[in-house]
């Protein structure tokens, strides 16, 4: 008997207990164990079989690590058919998360019981595939086509009570999965309940599948798996037999399994789990954090305070004046009202947070007892240094002193204190209570336990935290600055901002760069350009003035109703602002540029290659530890399409030699902007990929 599935006999019932921590993934050993268990139960003439998982969950799915490797028998679809075909009464008892292949094993059992906290779902589309072990054929037979389409195309986790209503499970009962499963199996035997195979149930009623396919494709912004899954559900209704429906599911599953989107999404799954695993933090204990301070109650400070309050942390918010403090409280109250509306918190939690967890202050002394303080004041190095000198004077020993700066030198800020080991960058993304990304910026003298505290805080705030080194813009904003510049160059050379935005949203970005600028506020980019010009631009760097002209006329994007686009009150999104084209034409004329046309493909290629090249510099300089750290930053902070895995996964899939060739060709036009990253040259010379570097780091 396999160790991954333990066999036990209790009277007439054979008990198969999966034991494959941490999540009982259905790897080959588990599949063999289940098959052997069913065969043994039949040979021993048991009357029923109970399947459950030891540890924290029933099967959480197929073993994702096996994807892309040669499959080993027994395959999951055949195993599910075998379980269903057993003449014995097969019962599954669910707890934790019965997901993907896990739910498919449950659906091939004849009866299903679950504890109230259990969740079920078919999240395969989020990995770029579809349920490939009968999920698209069996779920619609028990829950109906509409509910099945919803679960399969969104991949959402469904709570036990809802699953019961949908008919996905038969009974909900509190208790130990083994005990409730045994009692249920016995009850079914005692009552003479029939063997009940979902695959033998009649085909469900169809819906307008073409309409659903189109709607799902549109919603996915180019992601294929949810739309292809619709076709598999269609087969459940239309195929002449269950077996033929299964064959169609398999065919569509294999198509997706071979796709780059599958590779991108699985990379994203493991990358987001790898970012927090840093060798230097092994065994390092974070400092305890019970109370935090936030300095500055603008959009960013209020967002950070909201995120902390929602995670149950009391916050002391410091502002310069009573008035500003009240304005900050109003902002936080607005954020909390939003969280209440979206069902993230209850009315009671909302009221308790506002009345008891948030303190406002106007003097630094109020921060003397906090364990961690995050500064979110104006982006000016002298202002920040003054703030940190004050913090140094009042904060208790061991308090973590964090700056939310998005590009300033954290080493210089740390040097304004007598305790640089306690200083760190915690770079949140706006709105900070919504955006999942947190860059943890480690300065030269930051102590390891302070870094660990940053990661622990990120975990508590439900953020995806990525370690970054100190440089202008850290990982994300530094790369953004480069691909944004690339977009500006394309505008000067003949593309319109509107064509660029459209080409990039068609590629899968949530928004194009010009729409993003309008959302963030054009004044932000203006300030950065002014700063960079004041610092002295390299004479070889191209510059443009058209965006400055918009700002000079008071157009800052969405907040003023006009920027690259014109926004009307109450309407979502904007329409192209025609004045922009005149400003661009004037800029081109002043620079003596004759505009040329760009294809959408060329726009995407240049934009992406500029992003990859800067990302390779960021990794090569050690600002990001691994390529996957960059990928996660772009996925979680910059609207990069998840199904493409991140810029460096995209680069691997495109082929690095071609990317380097393009950079070299374009450097003939502009050898200042298009300087190949040494790391990219090295990888191409060695015939290696960014993923090889990720693997090196795992060892
Ligand atoms: N295969 C292999 N490893 C898996 C896994 C899977 N299906 N699911 C989780 N793991 C691993 C994680 O990588 C992680 O490993 P490390 O500790 O080494 O990082 C570990 O299990 C714990 O996972 P989490 O940190 O994510 O733990 P969590 O408690 O936050 O979440 C979970 C648990 C909800 C199960 C989450 O891991 C999850 O969503 N897993 C994926 C579920 C899924 O997509 N299942 C469908 C698989 S595809 C399929 O089944 C295809 C088919 O139809 C045949």
Question: What oligomerization state is this entry in?
Answer: single chain
**Helical coverage, percent range:** 40-55%
pLDDT averaged residue by residue: 96
Q: How much strand content do the residues show?
A: 5-15%
What would you note in describing this structure?
49% of the residues lie in helices and 11% in strands. Strand 3, helix 2 (76-85) and strand 4 form a beta-alpha-beta unit. It has 699 residues and is α/β, with parallel strands linked by helices. The chain has 29 helices and 19 strands. Strands 12-11-10-13-14-15-16-17 form an eight-stranded mixed beta sheet, sandwiched between helices. It has a six-stranded mixed beta sheet with strand order 1-2-3-4-6-9, sandwiched between helices.
Write the layout of secondary structure elements.
Elements: E1 5-10, E2 13-18, H1 28-43, E3 48-53, H2 76-85, E4 89-94, E5 97-99, H3 101-108, E6 111-114, E7 119-121, H4 135-143, H5 145-154, E8 158-159, H6 160-166, E9 171-172, H7 177-190, H8 209-219, H9 225-238, H10 242-257, H11 260-274, E10 292-295, H12 299-310, E11 315-318, H13 322-341, H14 347-357, E12 358-361, E13 372-375, H15 381-394, E14 400-403, H16 410-414, E15 423-428, E16 437-441, H17 448-460, E17 464-468, H18 476-493, H19 497-507, H20 513-520, H21 522-535, H22 546-552, E18 565-566, E19 575-576, H23 578-591, H24 600-620, H25 627-637, H26 647-654, H27 656-666, H28 678-686, H29 690-698
Helix pairs in contact: 1-2, 2-3, 4-5, 4-9, 5-9, 8-9, 9-10, 11-25, 12-13, 18-24, 19-24, 20-21, 22-23
The site of acetoacetyl-coenzyme A (CAA) has 23 residues, from strand 5 and helix 3.
């Amino acid at each position: 008997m396999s160790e991954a599935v333990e066999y036990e006999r209790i009277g007439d019932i054979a008990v198969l207990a999966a034991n494959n921590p941490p999540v009982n993934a259905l790897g080959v050993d588990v599949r063999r164990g289940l098959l052997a268990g069913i065969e043994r139960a039949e040979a021993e003439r048991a009357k029923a079989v109970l399947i459950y998982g030891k540890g924290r969950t029933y099967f959480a799915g197929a073993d994702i690590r096996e994807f892309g490797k040669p499959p080993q028998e027994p395959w999951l679809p055949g195993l599910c058919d075998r379980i269903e075909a057993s003449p014995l009464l097969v019962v599954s008892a669910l707890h934790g998360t019965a997901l993907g292949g896990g739910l498919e094993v449950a659906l091939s059992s004849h009866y299903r019981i679950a504890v109230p906290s259990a969740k079920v779902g078919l999240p395969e589309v989020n990995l770029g595939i579809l349920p490939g072990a009968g999920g698209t054929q069996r779920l619609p037979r028990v829950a109906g086509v509409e509910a099945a389409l919803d679960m399969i195309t969104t991949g959402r986790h469904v709570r036990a009570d809802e699953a019961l209503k949908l008919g996905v499970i038969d009974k909900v009962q509190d208790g130990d999965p083994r005990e409730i499963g045994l009692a249920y199996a016995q009850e079914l035997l005692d009552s003479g309940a029939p063997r009940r195979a979902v695959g033998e149930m009649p085909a469900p009623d169809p819906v307008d599948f073409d309409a659903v396919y189109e709607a799902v494709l549109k919603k996915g912004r180019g992601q294929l798996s949810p739309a292809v899954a619709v076709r598999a559900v269609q087969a459940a209704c239309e195929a002449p037999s269950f077996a033929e429906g299964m064959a169609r599911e398999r065919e569509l599953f294999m198509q997706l399994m071979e796709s780059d989107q599958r590779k991108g999404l699985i990379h994203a799954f493991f990358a987001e789990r790898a970012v927090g695993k840093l060798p230097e933090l092994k065994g390092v204990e974070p400092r305890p954090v019970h109370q935090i301070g936030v300095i500055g109650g603008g959009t960013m400070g209020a967002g950070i305070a909201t995120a902390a309050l929602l995670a149950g942390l009391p916050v002391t918010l410091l502002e310069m004046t009573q008035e500003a403090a009240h304005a900050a409280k109003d902002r936080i109250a607005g954020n909390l009202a939003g969280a209440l509306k979206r069902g993230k918190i209850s009315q009671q939690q909302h009221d308790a947070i506002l009345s008891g967890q948030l303190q406002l202050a106007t003097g630094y002394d109020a921060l003397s007892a906090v364990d961690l303080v995050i500064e979110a004041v104006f982006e000016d190095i002298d202002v920040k240094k003054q703030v940190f000198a004050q913090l140094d004077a009042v904060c208790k020993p061991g308090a973590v002193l964090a700056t939310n700066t998005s590009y300033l030198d954290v080493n210089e800020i740390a040097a304004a204190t007598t305790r640089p080991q306690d200083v760190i960058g915690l770079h949140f993304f706006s709105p900070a209570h919504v955006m999942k990304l947190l860059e943890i910026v480690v300065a030269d003298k930051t102590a390891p336990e302070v870094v660990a505290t940053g990661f622990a805080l990120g975990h508590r705030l439900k953020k995806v935290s990525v370690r970054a080194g100190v440089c202008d813009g850290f990982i994300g904003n530094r790369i953004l600055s480069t691909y944004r510049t690339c977009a500006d160059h394309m505008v000067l050379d003949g593309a319109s901002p509107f064509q660029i935005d459209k080409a990039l949203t068609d590629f899968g970005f949530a928004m194009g760069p010009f729409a993003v600028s309008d959302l963030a506020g054009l004044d932000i980019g203006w300030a950065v350009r002014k700063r960079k010009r004041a610092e002295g631009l390299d004479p070889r760097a191209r510059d443009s003035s058209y965006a400055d002209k918009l700002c000079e006329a008071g157009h800052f994007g969405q907040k003023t109703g006009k920027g690259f686009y014109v926004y009307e009150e109450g309407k979502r999104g904007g329409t192209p602002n025609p004045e922009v084209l005149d400003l661009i034409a004037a800029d081109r004329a002043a620079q003596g540029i004759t505009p040329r046309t760009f294809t959408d493909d060329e726009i995407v290629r240049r934009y992406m290659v500029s992003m990859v090249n800067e990302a390779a510099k960021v990794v090569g300089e050690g600002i990001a530890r691994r390529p996957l750290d960059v990928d996660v930053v772009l996925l979680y902070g910059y609207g990069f399409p998840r199904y493409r895995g991140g810029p460096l996964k995209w680069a691997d899939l495109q082929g690095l030699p071609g990317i380097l060739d393009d950079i070299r060709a374009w450097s003939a036009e502009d050898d200042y902007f298009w300087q190949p990253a040494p790391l990219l040259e090295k990888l191409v010379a060695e015939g290696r990929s960014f993923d090889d570097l990720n693997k090196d780091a795992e060892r």
